[in-house]
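Running this now, will post back.
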Amino acid sequence: MHCPYCGQKHPDGTKYCPETGKSMPKPKNSRVQHQKSTRQPAKVTINLSSPLTLIILGLVAVLVVLMVIFAFKRDQQPAQPVVSQDIEATLEVIVNLTANAQASLSQEVTSTATATDLPPTPTFTLVPPTTFIMPTRTPMTGAYSACPNAYPSVLHAGDVAMVSLDPPKENILRDKPGTDSLITGTLEPGEQVNIVSGPACMGPYVWWSVVSRSSGRAGWTAEGDWNDYWLVKQD
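Update: finished.
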């Protein structure tokens, strides 16, 4: 250990100088010094595979080439406007390429429109309207026109009628004339009724107020339609 006070070397670990009696300085940490001496400067790396790096390098290369070409032509022909001629030539090439692209596109669109099959023009055939023929039947004896636009009726108030067996279908009883009225019951095929009042005209039907002679059910029911009589007069 070197003593800065007396200039002599003393054994390691000496705390005081034997000559001057002053406190010896502490030895420096050799590990820290070694680390400081061996520390290497940070390396700067460039990722050449990055797209941004490639673009920047490409632009730099283009600028360098343009500068070289410009300097070379300026040295060869200093009196001629080389740059203006190059710009005009470049613009002319761009205009020609644009015109050719537009012509090709127009030709392609025209050929595509010609080759595309257009849908056929629809044709309409006029069909004459179908004439509706009202079902007809031979009126029963004593039939008369009880309601306009309805089938001929054969019943009168006070008559006795029976629900037809041909076809064997039940008649619907309603609280008043009309197919929109409330249904109150039914009359079975072959069931006899008394005609209380009527006729009432509602829609294409002749309606009668009836009372069943067997069950006592009462209501309004239709006499029939243009195809069949649902109530048959009884003698």
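The beta strands are 160-163, 171-174, 183-187, 192-202, 205-212, 218-222, 231-234. More later if anyone needs it.
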